[in-house]
């Protein structure tokens, strides 16, 4: 019987995993989630296209099952996500003629969505990714030109946090993004949060997705990006960690070689050592899945083998699992 990961990190930070609802249908998958993780993140079913596919027509069948799983097992549940440019239905942004709606209409829809979803899981979801992937460092104001932005500018981000805070001021409200180790992106995110804080917008935490690979980025870059946000007094969550074995989209391996296994194990260990140096702000480290059969990296960015997580396709512990334990 192998050691429990959540126990190994007890008193340091919560150890989390994303999961898909099909994992709730098989006992071995469920037991692995329950044993090793004290935080869980529904991977898709809390997204807008899942919970409100048509205006004011909410469907909580899948979301209810996902959240209930975590609650029943005494796990913290991270809510992912309220406002995003992807996996969001087009109706949110358009009128009956297909034209973009006014700010007022957009905000009414946003508020209705945030309020309805957050109220349903009040007391069950402890932290929400209020906005996801809003940064584009190539823009002068650092903000992605999503439909949200095209209609409302930066203000939509303020509204999202204000609406969420009004529903439940005790829930931790996060801003989540990828490639936050990149200096320009990290700076753009930092600048945004500084502007929000100056206006009194209630942001509690920064989420670093941390979809990385064996090749990129460096540990130093990751550590710098964690340290950078300490100045803002925010909590830090690592929200979507995985380590791809590829450096570019054209590669595809038949097998997971012993050499790759060892390199991945070494990197996981060093990475967790970084997180452990910053437990003053890092309070949750969540992997984007528990096992290599349930990883989005087998479909994104292309369909191919990949082995980014701590357990293999048969739910057996990988060298990466053992090396993470050694980091403590
Ligand atoms: C991914 C899911 O894991 C996939 O199942 C889905 O097809 C696409 O989205 N950043 C995020 C997550 O914030 O929501 C994404 O999840 C992975 C990248």
From TrEMBL:
Residue ranges occupied by any GH10 domain in the UniProt entry: 1-327
In the record, the note on similarity to other proteins reads: Belongs to the glycosyl hydrolase 10 (cellulase F) family.
User: What is this protein identified as?
Assistant: Beta-xylanase
Residue range from the parent sequence: 198 to 525 of 782
